[in-house]
Write a structure and sequence with these properties.
Layout: H1 2-11, H2 20-30, H3 33-38, H4 44-57, H5 63-72
Length: about 90
């Protein structure tokens, strides 16, 4: 059962957004299951790390950048990252 879920999850193309809650609730309100399944919701620690970075630097970074940096530092697992094998332009 778990293997099937992982295989199916790999076939879904997710999209990233810094407006995660807005995207999620819009898809939920519209009853659009296809979009709802594609919304990537980062691990909660990503939101906390981004807020801490903002408080320290005054700069907002994208959720994708924070998530990717945390993954590269070994703070979150590859299963919590959108496209863990894709290099970003800032790397």
């Amino acid at each position: 059962m778990v293997h099937w879920f992982i295989t199916m999850a790999r076939k879904i193309k997710y999209y990233q957004s810094d407006k995660v809650l807005e995207e999620f609730y819009r898809a939920l309100a519209n009853g659009n299951e296809r979009v709802l399944r594609r919304v990537h919701i980062p691990h909660s620690s990503v939101f906390y790390a981004r807020e801490a970075y903002h408080q320290h630097s005054g700069e907002w970074l994208s959720l994708d950048r924070i998530e990717r940096a945390m993954f590269l530092e070994g703070m979150i697992s590859r299963y919590n990252v959108l496209d863990p094998d894709r290099k970003r332009d800032w790397e």
